[in-house]
Specification:
single chain; 220 residues; mainly alpha; two-stranded antiparallel sheet; disordered N terminus
Length: 220
């Protein structure tokens, strides 16, 4: 493969070739290192995982995980694969670490296993990096919600809190949608693009990840 051909490949195309068995993991790493495409900004926003480098993804994923754990003293809990809640008391550090493991590696593992039905060769480490980076909008939603409404509202909030709750919802819901969209892009990228029953597999993986994460947190 010539250098121009190498640089024309996006991360998404390379991982699709790997998932389909057209290249080996070693060849995929070589192609990923050689890919230098510079897409238009709108294409980056549509699927940043197709263009971001591995160091960029791992850096963002690690920073997001660290920041999520650091939110524990401020009563921001990521208590599930897809969840973010405000709690009235500082969250214990041990609990925050356990939740981080469930929210990141466990969710990534569930999505990665779903990409292998039917059998594919997508790599777990790629899914792990992308899922970690995709959690950034959920982290932002938690921080902004805490800043907007302060303490978690009671069952019967004061009238003055209603508008703050509405604003917080208008902020948190779109960011949560972006989070789910990021997981979908990670699923498609690692799984090799469009596949039969991809939407069904993705939805089932999310349901299994969320349900099992609640069970794991209850046990631990």
């Amino acid at each position: 493969m010539s250098d121009p051909d190498r640089t024309a490949l996006t991360r998404e195309k390379i991982l699709a070739m790997l998932a389909a068995g057209r290249v080996s993991p070693e060849e995929a790493d070589e192609l990923l290192s050689a890919a230098q495409g510079r897409p238009r900004p709108w294409r980056r926003w549509l699927n940043p995982f197709a263009w971001a480098s591995a160091p960029q993804l791992w850096g963002l994923a690690g920073a997001t995980a660290a920041a999520s754990i650091a939110c524990a003293p401020f009563g921001i809990a990521f208590d599930g694969a897809l969840d973010m809640h405000l709690v009235s008391a500082p969250h214990p550090w041990r609990r925050a670490w356990i939740e981080a493991l469930v929210a990141w590696p466990w969710l990534a593992s569930c999505l990665w296993l779903a990409t292998r039905i039917p059998p594919r060769r997508g790599r777990w480490r790629d899914m792990l990096a992308m899922v970690g980076a995709a959690r950034l909008p959920l982290l932002i939603a938690g921080v902004l919600t805490r800043l907007l409404i302060g303490e978690p509202p009671t069952a019967d909030p004061d009238p003055g809190q209603h508008h703050l709750l509405l604003v917080a919802m208008l902020v948190a819901v779109p960011l949560s949608v972006v989070f789910i969209a990021g997981l979908w892009q990670a699923f498609r990228t690692v799984g090799g693009g469009q596949r039969p029953y991809a939407t069904l597999s993705f939805t089932a993986a999310l349901i299994i990840a969320e349900t099992s994460s609640k069970l794991l947190l209850w046990v631990l």
